[in-house]
Structure formats: structure tokens, C-alpha cells
Amino acid sequence: MTSTVNGLPVPDDVDPLGQGAAAIRALAGRINPVASGIVSLAFAGTSTKTVAVTFPVGRFPTAPSVTVSASGSAILYGYVVSSASTTGVTVGLAQRDNGAVTANIGCQWQAIGTA
User: Fold this and answer.
1) How far apart (Å, rounded) are the C-alpha atoms in residues 97 and 48?
2) What are phi and psi of 86, to 5 degrees?
3) Positive or negative: CA dihedral 15, 20, 23, 24
4) Is the dihedral of CA 95, 105, 55, 114 positive or negative?
5) Which helix (H) or strand (E) holds 25?
6) Which domains does the chain have, with CATH numbers?
7) pLDDT digits (tens, 9 = 90+) for 60-83
8) Is the separation of the CB atoms in 1 and 21 below 8 Å?
């Protein structure tokens, strides 16, 4: 296996199972690429905090859609600061009443691309 489609390894057509390789390649091309993670934002008496997220290399052939949420917090909400690119996005958390926060808060993000 020397080729990849949407970041998934697929066998080459020169493999003895060439027809199976073609079928796997076609299937891999229809799977939407995804990535997700949690980053920690260190608030120090502020109401908002942002961080840059880098996607795995080669995962997204086009810019994905990104969602963001705060881990275990009812008073913080997540947002996308700038449009996502194929390589990353800047995400943030904000206190809903614009109050100061002093804590490390987990920020969950999920990126979903199109095949």
C-alpha cells in the first residue's frame, strides 16, 4: 500500500488484487474526512480566549466545516474565529455575560470535510 485517498492507505492497482484495490480506492474516495480534538484554553481574568488548531497534514482537500464547544461549562460558548482552511482554524471560547474567567477550560472542536 503506497497510495492514500483522504488520508487513508489504499492498495495500488498493480497489486495482484487489482480489482479489489480499485474498489477500496473508490470507497475511500467517498468517505468524508474528519478530525477532532480538545485544546486547553488558559483564561487569566479575561472573558474570551482563542487558539489556533492545526489539522492533520493532508486530511482535508477542501476547507472543512468546524464546530466548537466548551467542555463541561454552561457559561462559556465556543466559536470559530476565522474561516477554516485545509490546514487549520482558529477557535475560541467566550463567557456568555462577558465576565472575567480565570481557569483552564477544554475547548472541543470537530472538523468535517466533503469527499
Assistant:
1) 11
2) -70, -15
3) negative
4) negative
5) helix 18-28
6) 1-31 (no CATH), 34-112 (2.60.40.2080)
7) 999 999 999 988 777 888 999 888
8) no
